[in-house]
Design brief:
heterodimer, A: 98 residues, alpha/beta, 4-stranded mixed sheet, 4 strands, globular, B: 155 residues, alpha+beta, 5-stranded antiparallel sheet, 5 strands
Chain lengths: 98, 155
């Protein structure tokens, strides 16, 4: 489940629940639908309500980064704590964390 | 090291449907909970199982739905004298899918054979980093068996 907060230049996508291979495609589609319509300068992925995440979450981050690069947008990560933070760090993406 | 005893175990057979990823990791986590693990240990175990089962679904059975066998065991050391003899959780995940031709390449972080589907190529890296031991045995067209072990800290 994804909650989108759109302030024009900036979009925050709050992801809730589990991010695994099964759920990732639905989350991806929800975010990409918004990106396609608004081409924001900044996308913030908010992991604050993520209960579980495996490497599918990294695929989700890298994939959105690729979409944003298509129109010169940037991606940052917010509220990745505990287990989600551990996976983000393992993937070498700490520099994206707010 | 003292002799290990299998204190408890289970075996689970599930079809390789993506809906079962959550079921598999939750089942192993529930089994492991009798060792009174920390939240971090449980999350490590869940992530490692999730990666292994996802590999079966995405790679081993890419064009079909095959069986995934999950075995978990609790190994204890009755003659325990030192902290290094704290209990281990043993997990074995086996498929009869396409197998891995080059295991070293498959384990390389960021390497993936999956051009579509946004796989990060970090499955084995997560298993290796979050568990204490990882072993992969595979033969093309015969399948893959991975075994992982994690030592749980004594409270």
């Amino acid at each position: 489940m994804v909650e989108i907060i759109n302030s024009g230049e900036q979009i925050t996508a709050g992801i809730a629940g589990d991010i695994d291979h099964h759920t990732a495609s639905g989350i991806r589609n929800e975010i990409d639908a918004v990106l396609e319509n608004t081409t924001p300068q900044l996308l913030i992925l908010d992991f604050g309500r993520v209960k579980f995440m495996d490497s599918s979450g990294i695929g989700l981050i890298l994939g959105r980064q690729r979409v944003l690069q298509g129109f010169g947008g940037q991606l940052l990560i917010k509220n990745a704590t505990g287990h989600a933070e551990k996976i983000v760090k393992l993937a070498g993406l700490s520099n994206l964390m707010l | 090291m003292a002799k290990a005893v299998i204190k408890n175990h289970f075996k689970l057979n599930i079809p390789g449907r993506s809906q079962n990823e959550a079921f598999a990791r939750t089942a192993v986590a529930a089994f492991a909970s009798q060792l009174d693990p920390t939240v971090e240990e449980i999350n490590d175990i869940k992530a490692a199982v999730s990666e292994a089962v996802t590999n079966c679904i995405v790679h081993a059975y890419a064009d079909t739905i095959g069986n995934i066998e999950i075995v978990a065991r609790i190994l204890e050391f009755p003659e325990r004298t030192t902290d290094s003899d704290s209990p281990w959780l043993y997990i074995r995940i086996r498929d009869k899918g396409c197998g891995i031709a080059d295991i070293v390449q498959a384990k390389t972080p960021l390497f993936t054979t999956c051009a579509e589907g946004e796989r990060a190529g970090l499955g084995f890296a997560v298993m290796e980093n979050f568990m204490d031991k990882l072993h992969v045995r595979s033969k093309p067209d015969c399948g893959t068996t991975i075994t992982m072990q994690k030592r749980l800290q004594l409270k």
